[in-house]
């Protein structure tokens, strides 16, 4: 899933839509702007609803349900209230269908037009308060603390699963009080009164999410990630070995050319000049040997990689990589941006860096450039991670 998912930093909107679909939470329906909430997605809604419903009831609120269809005249009474979403209202004008006389299916029965159009509720204030005026006869009937769990419809032009759809689930609470001060007190009721201190802590909630969702996902993806990383590391070793072999071959050619030139000079020059040339050649050979000796060699044994730095801003991806590598007995450190990675490299020695190219503060390309200037960072192998198919980005990476 992670390898095929658009990066959040590249296209947040596309990343979100893909995440909802791939997580099997919801899908678009055959009706424009409306979604099908699938069992896993609806289970999340049920858990939130159940917890909130319990807390509402503990503070004296009761549930009720009001009609889906609201007479247009109700909105006319409060024109300013509906002004914000008047253009998003769906209107029911007829109450019956009939067979097409030409045999082309079903059509609206033109003789079944409603006397007054009905609005599919965009919100329920108007019809709720129409009921309240009948329920409240004196101050003894107050306060009224009513909550409604319902669906509403707003004909959105641009929709997005869960965030903005034409129809969506919600709750709306409407309370009535004897005085203005009581109404304000209810509205500003301390959060602690709704969420007692004995409730699940933030850390416990994160742990529950990790155990119930993140870890199962890690287990499903671990084999694919392990296989991909193993292939990348193997390829990196092969390339390094080829580079080392090429370097050694080139060094041998230079060495032979230098010695041949020294012999030719000895034959053509005077004894004194030959001695001078011999001294110079010996110095040149020593310098060349020293340069070759100082060139880092690559140990291609997998066990030679003891410590790996994973640099990735996406916490989920980072945890997956760290989990896989840790199980392979590697010692793994992590950083969530390029600046922190550079600091870690200054403080510690690493045998391999796995670097995301798109990160906040300092991206992977520029972080790698700076790493090459840090003492000890010049020769650390760096594996780039990116879902970006831009060839220019890849070209810049290979030029580092």
List the helices and strands and how they pair.
Elements: H1 12-22, E1 26-28, E2 35-37, H2 39-58, E3 62-63, E4 69-71, H3 72-77, H4 79-82, E5 90-94, E6 97-99, E7 106-108, E8 113-120, H5 125-135, E9 144-153, E10 167-176, H6 180-187, H7 191-194, H8 202-268, H9 271-294, E11 307-311, H10 315-327, E12 331-335, H11 338-347, E13 352-356, H12 364-371, E14 382-385, H13 391-399
Parallel strand pairs: 3-9, 11-12, 11-13, 13-14
Antiparallel strand pairs: 1-2, 4-8, 5-8, 6-7, 9-10
Helix pairs in contact: 8-9, 8-10, 11-12
Order of helices and strands: HEEHEEHHEEEEHEEHHHHEHEHEHEH
How large is the radius of gyration? 35 Å
Number of strands: 14
Query: Could you say which overall geometry the principal axes of the C-alpha atoms support?
Result: elongated
CATH topology of the largest domain: BirA Bifunctional Protein, domain 2
> Runs with pLDDT <50, length 5+?
270-285, 291-303
CATH class categorisation of the largest domain: Alpha Beta
Beta-strand percentage? 15-25%
Structural class: alpha/beta
In DSSP terms, counting alpha (H) and pi (I) runs of 4 or more, how many helices?
13
CATH homologous superfamily placement of the largest domain: Bira Bifunctional Protein, Domain 2
- Distance from N terminus to C terminus (CA atoms, Å) equals 29 Å
Main sheet makeup: 4 strands, parallel
The CATH architecture of the largest domain: 2-Layer Sandwich
Give the total of domains: 3
Order of strands, main sheet, comes to 12-11-13-14
Mean pLDDT rating: 78
Helix proportion of residues, in percent?
40-55%
């Amino acid at each position: 899933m992670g390898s095929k998912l658009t990066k959040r930093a590249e296209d947040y909107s596309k990343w979100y839509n893909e995440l909802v679909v791939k997580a099997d939470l919801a899908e678009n329906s055959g009706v424009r702007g409306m979604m099908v909430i699938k069992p896993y997605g609806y289970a999340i809604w049920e858990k939130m609803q159940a917890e909130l419903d319990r807390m509402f009831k503990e503070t004296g609120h009761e549930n009720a349900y009001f009609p889906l269809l609201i007479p247009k005249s109700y909105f006319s009474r409060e024109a300013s209230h509906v002004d914000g979403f008047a253009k998003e209202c769906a209107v029911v004008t007829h109450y019956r269908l009939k067979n097409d006389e030409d045999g082309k299916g079903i059509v609206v029965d033109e003789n079944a037009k409603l006397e007054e159009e009905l609005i599919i509720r965009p919100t329920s204030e108007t019809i709720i308060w129409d009921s309240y005026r009948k329920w409240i006869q004196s101050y003894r009937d107050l306060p009224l603390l009513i909550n409604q769990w319902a669906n509403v419809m707003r004909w959105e032009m641009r929709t997005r699963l869960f965030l903005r759809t034409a129809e969506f689930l919600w709750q709306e609470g409407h309370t009535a009080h004897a005085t203005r001060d009581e109404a304000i007190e209810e509205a500003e009721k301390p959060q602690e009164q709704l969420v007692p201190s004995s409730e699940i802590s933030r850390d416990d909630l994160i742990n529950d999410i990790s155990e119930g969702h993140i870890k199962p996902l890690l287990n499903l993806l671990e084999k694919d990630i392990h296989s991909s990383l193993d292939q990348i590391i193997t390829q990196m070793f092969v390339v390094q070995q080829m580079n080392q072999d090429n370097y050694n071959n080139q060094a041998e050619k230079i060495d032979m050319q230098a010695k041949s030139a020294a012999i030719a000079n000895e034959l053509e020059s005077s004894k004194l000049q030959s001695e001078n040339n011999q001294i110079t050649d010996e110095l040149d050979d020593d310098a060349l040997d020293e340069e070759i000796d100082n060139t880092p060699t690559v140990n291609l044994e997998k066990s030679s990689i003891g410590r790996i730095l994973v640099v990735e801003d996406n916490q989920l991806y980072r945890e997956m990589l760290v989990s896989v590598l840790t199980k392979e007995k590697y010692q793994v450190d992590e950083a969530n941006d390029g600046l922190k990675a550079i600091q870690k490299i200054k403080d510690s020695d690493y045998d391999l860096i796995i670097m995301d190219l798109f990160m906040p503060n300092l991206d992977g390309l520029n972080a790698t450039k700076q790493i090459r200037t840090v003492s000890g960072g010049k020769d650390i192998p760096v594996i780039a991670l990116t879902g970006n198919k831009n060839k220019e980005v890849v070209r810049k990476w290979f030029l580092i």
